Amino acid sequence: MEAPIFRALREEIPNPKQRLFFEATARHIAYGGARGGGKSWAMRRKFVMLAMRYPGLKLLLLRRTLPELRENHINPMRAELFGYARYTDTDKAFVFPNGSRIKMGYCDSEADIYQYQGQEYEVIGLEEATHFTESQKDFLLTSNRSTRGDFTPRMYYTSNPGNVGHQWFKRLFIDKQYKGAENPQDYVFIPAQVYDNKTLMDNNPEYVQALETLPEEMKRAHLYGDWDVFAGQYFTEFRREIHVLRPFEIPVDWLRYVALDYGLDMLAAYWIAVDHQGMAYIYRELYQPGLIISDAAQMIDELTGDEQIEQHIAPPDLWNRRQDTGKSAAEIFSEHGIYLSKANNDRIQGWYELREWLKPIADEQRRPAAKIRIFENCINLIRTLPLLQHDEHNPNDAAKDPHELTHAPDAIRYFVASRPYAAEPLKPPKVKWYKDQFEDYYNADVVEQERLLILRRNPPWG
To answer: 431 pLDDT exceeds 70?
Structure first.
């Protein structure tokens, strides 16, 4: 009797996104984003195909809890592999005829990760990866190694937006912000939505309809796989397609401000231009740790160059005198040519005002817009602003932890709290006509008179 897996492999047709997932060979391969994209099936099938293709391969497939592991992977795989791969419940592993072995694991608590210490797996899969903390992911990475020459170790991830691992997953696969030894070439993300899953669309259209009727924020995350929105998010107004734009040359008559949040752990400074309608454009970012005040002031001055800055806006704590020098940070900034203006530090009111600035509106052409926009080169503001969460003790406030996420949003909060003025449009100079020009006008026909009036309003020498 033929094992079900062989019939399945002959008859199954993966959707185009699942095929990309199967074909990818990078060190870290992530798949998903929205619900219903066929993530669990793709992970199971990839593991089975790898185990059948490479004799003696060691694989580890993980879910956060044992019940989830059983329902999503162990039970379906026992049915699919019946008569071919042997499953033992004591060590929760499938052993294939060629010696390959898929270990089924879970990490219900942070300490559960240590059961894999010292073990070696050529392939590790994190199903619903954002349910794992970054420290758990990093620990598992130490077990993802191999001494064989025919296969390079790799890790697979499937996930939706949200949960405890949202930040690290988004940093690596969505924002593509890397640190330390992380190599950008090692990371591949294949986004998938329910609309890519033809089988689900055909067999369970009610599921799709349920996703389409979710509240707007939940729909953005679960239906469209939007990583800029998740449960507990403070700034649900933020939308990358509305608030982030390509840089352009700032007109000379717009007012310019610098807003900053300073500490030795991080200087977050932003240059912001305000147009004639009071719309703000954040066009430059300085985001650097470890700067003493004099160096911070020098960097701000150098980046500003010849630009005329209306105000350098900073939090009130920079006016506190330091015990070692008796001077405040604001005094030291001023000694190096940066004269600070004290911002209102009412946190909740400031966040409320920033939400108003972020609220989507329609522009003159009825296109989605907002009162505040961010140039795409301000990568840390774009990264951290949508990651701020509600404070668990005061839902009206934004959480102060993780602290690294607060520097850039705080600087922008100081800016909006300062109630910046809109720029006054430049008025064209009045053009004086001389006597002979009036004579030319009165002696001309109607067409020539119109031409002369246009020249008067827009003289070629002006």
So the answer is: no
Encode pLDDT of 203-244 as tens digits: 777 777 787 787 777 777 777 778 887 777 889 899 989 999
Between CA 200 and CA 68 the distance in angstroms is 20
Residue 449: phi, psi to the nearest 5?
-60, -40
Confidence of residue 461 (pLDDT cuts 50, 70, 90): very low
Residue 307 pLDDT greater than 70, yes or no: yes
CATH topology of domain 4-222: Rossmann fold (3.40.50)
How many helices (H) and strands (E) are present in the chain, helices listed first? 18, 17
Q: 66 Cβ partners below 8 Å, 6+ apart? A: 106, 108
The tokens describing 113, both together, are 């990760």
Distance CA(73)–CA(194), nearest Å, equals: 20
CB 208 within 8 Å of CB 199: no
Whether the CB-CB separation of 357 and 409 falls below 8 Å is answered with no
Neighbours of 64 (CB within 10 A): 23
Q: Where do the DSSP E strands lie in 90-132?
A: 93-95, 101-106, 123-126
Return the CATH number of the domain spanning residue range 243-417: 3.30.420.280
Task: Please name which of 208, 237, 232, 177 lies closest in space to residue 391, comparing C-alpha atoms.
Answer: 232
Predicted TM-score of the model (pTM): 0.66
What tens digit of pLDDT does each residue of 326-337 get?
899 999 999 999
Identity of the amino acid at 254 = W
DSSP-assigned beta bridge partners for residue 285: 270
Residue 321: how many other CB atoms lie within 10 Å: 12
Strands 368-369 and 187-192: unpaired
Structure tokens at 68: 């989830």
- Provide the 3-class DSSP secondary structure of residue 188: strand
Q: What is the DSSP letter of 131?
A: G
Structure tokens at 31: 């798949």
> Which residue type is seen at 24?
A
Domain boundaries, the chain: 4-222, 243-417, 428-462
Q: Are strands 28-33 and 154-159 parallel, antiparallel or unpaired?
A: parallel
Cα 383 to the center of its chain, rounded Å: 5
> Mapping DSSP to helix (H, G, I), strand (E, B) and coil, where does residue 252 land?
coil
